[in-house]
Amino acid sequence: MANLKLAVRRLLKTPFVSLVAIVSLALGIGANAAIFSLFDQMLLAPLPVREADRLVNLAAPGPKPGSQSCSQAGDCDAVFSYQMFRDLEKAPTAFSGIAGHCGFEANVAYHGQTSNSQGMLVSGSYFPVLGVQPALGRLLGPDDDTAIGGHFVTVLSFAYWVTRLGASPTVLNEPIIVNGQSMTIVGVAPRGFDGTTLGVRPALFTPLTMRGQMVPGWQGFDNRRSYWIYLFARLNPGASIEQARTAINVPFHGIVNDVEAPLQKGMSEQTLAKFKAKSVIVEPGQQGQSSMHADARAPLVLLMAITGIVLLIACANIANLLLARGAGRAAEMAVRLSLGASRWQLLQQLLIESLLLAALGGALSLLVARWTLASIATLLPAQAAAVLEFSLHWPSVFFAGGLSMATGLLFGLFPALHSTRPDLIATIKGSAGQPSGSRTASRFRTSLVTAQVALSMMLLISAGLFVKSLANVSRVDLGLKVDNVVTFKISPELNGYEPARTRALFVRAEDELAAIPGVSAVSAAIVPLLAGNNWGSSVSVQGFAKGPDTDSNSRYNEVGAGYFHALGVPLIAGREFTASDAVGAPKVAIVNEAFAKKFNLGRDAVGKHMSGGGPEPEKLDVEIVGLVQNAKYSDVKHAIPPVFFRPYRQDERIGAITFYARTSSDTSQLLRAIPGVVSRLDPNLPVEDLKTLPQQVEENVFLDRMITTLAGAFALLATVLAAIGLYGVLAYTVAQRTREIGLRMALGADGRRVRRMVLAQVGRMTVIGGAVGVLVALGLGHYARSLLFELQEYDPVVVIAATIALALVALGAGYIPALRASRVDPMLALRYE
């Protein structure tokens, strides 16, 4: 306690130095704690279930002829057919249970309140395999999953129950309308459980066998060529992943070869061999199933590395401050040693001072971390921000605490060892004049600053690469005009609308939107633009010969009349769709340039025939009536794929659509008007994803914007900290060399020569540190290459710009000490000597 009181007095004795150290640490630790909070949520945190380490995820990569439905739970390698799931569920394996799940979009109505949410179709084994207990009522079990289409029961998520239903215990056995179906609420999932897919927070869980009711018009339970279920399992006690992999592939290979291989038609010998050789992959599943795990790994690791570098620079600054302060206390340490104090006692005292600084910096870092997380939340689209928590949880707090103590020891150990070196006679003699640091300490301080310069150069180059990459993204030619366009979605089929009524509602909605003052064009599409959605189908095209393994797949969309005019996509040949292209009229299509190139149509596409990608892919019953210029489809950064467009009015069953309205006035007025228009059509129909098209484009590249912003901010912070460190070392050096400088000036050196001497020291540290930083930046750029758009990991322009920026910062940091040195009065310096 006495040492702690003394440490407090010492910190208060030099308040400016203490404040700089505390703030530097708070910035470094806070940035690390904020990024770690996201890192923990997305890559480390296990599911809140019993013995999560025994959960495993299943996948079956390889040919999957037929239809595939993939989602955020994983790519298409991970999906299984319903029949395969049931076969594996009954087969002898090393699992105590296998569970299946699949997400769906849900319009939920309860007591007159309707909302658009996400739902999760789960097998009867889902909750038993996870081992969770209900917060209210019961969870779904095997008895709720026996008959297809026969179990009208649902379990609410805890968050939905609290936020939408007020946590009322009377909801049990109450009806709730889900996609037009009356379902009985039988329970509430436990607090904190949001399903098994990171990035998806379902409002409710319904039996897997109810997919036909939750997704109107869907039929695929008996189709072994329809892949849509994600599977996970729980290992038997004592079973290993290798044993489980071997055990499950025995029945899987038998089913694939004896049951499913004979069903494959038109498959080449090579592809059939690959199909028969497919195996189930078993991987750890304690974090659930989500494509976000893979997508977030590289950027989060990169950001953790960047914030770690910022913290190292802050630690180097504080180590230099403590070394400088330790030099001033050299006489004190020597006297205390000569009076009988042990070196360990002095080390203990100095380390307590360092740890106190670290503790204060760590406490303040929690505020910095919260501000950083709040800033990150503003960079994310609403959908992504809704599935993450931007608050500090105990793992992040413990991380900040552990980091504080580690940094306290890191930056405090060498200064403490140096300040308590037992060279008593030399130190006490040296105290007769100005204290001077030893050559070892001087070299250490110089090395620290050189390392800071190197790390700053590395971060500046990295930030420059991301800035240039984002600039490349912003210059991408989308092939359409996004300004002054508002988009939103409605899903009437999820409210129980029949197909004819749905089509009529869409037509009325287009008319109502067109009547809004300022609206110049209105159209619609079933696949929203630049939203990451990819709908594809194999097609046959007149004049294009295809064999068993020929790639005949194309993306497609169903759009409204005047779609290309509304979005500013040029028509190259033929015509657009009109209102007369409806059910019963001749089937027509419009294709883009990429489609015409892939299927060898050239500029003569108009008039050719193709299949519509339906159940009869060889039936060329669709006439191509238009050719349009290439335009981005699902992603800003991806190459434009072949796309064919069909009029949505010719689809006899369409349940949801995204509208596009172009206005000549302020889009904010249109955004306010649209909910009223939809409410007049149907007050129980929720408006989904209402936004401007430029907002949709920004959300499509949010990861690029987030990384660029954070990398730039952290690089700027690191450079400022390095400049402070450079200034501190030079100022201290000048103070220590005052007598030498005075003597030089007394012997004839002018102020310009003295300034050049000091700036030469700046130049040496900057050149060495900058060169090392460039080399390290190449390695970091190679790791980040996958995150860069149309850019290599080395860019001369970025390196030159970072070099100039760092040189100017170093010059600014070194000029003040150099100027101060040139103004030393020789007479005063020599008189002091």
Give the topology.
Layout: H1 2-13, H2 15-44, E1 55-59, E2 67-68, E3 79-81, H3 82-90, E4 95-110, E5 113-122, H4 126-130, E6 136-137, E7 153-156, H5 158-165, E8 175-178, E9 181-188, E10 204-207, H6 211-214, E11 226-235, H7 241-260, H8 269-276, E12 281-284, H9 291-328, H10 330-338, H11 343-379, H12 382-386, H13 394-419, H14 424-430, H15 439-474, E13 485-490, H16 499-514, E14 519-525, E15 536-538, E16 553-559, H17 563-567, E17 571-574, E18 588-592, H18 593-598, E19 609-610, E20 622-628, E21 643-647, E22 657-663, H19 667-681, E23 688-692, H20 693-700, H21 702-736, H22 738-746, H23 751-783, H24 796-822, H25 826-832
Please provide a brief summary of the model.
With 833 residues, the protein is of the alpha+beta class. The chain is built from 25 helices and 23 strands. The strands form three sheets. Strands 15, 16, 17, 18, 19, 20 and 21 form a seven-stranded mixed sheet that branches. A six-stranded mixed β-barrel has the order 4-5-10-7-9-8.
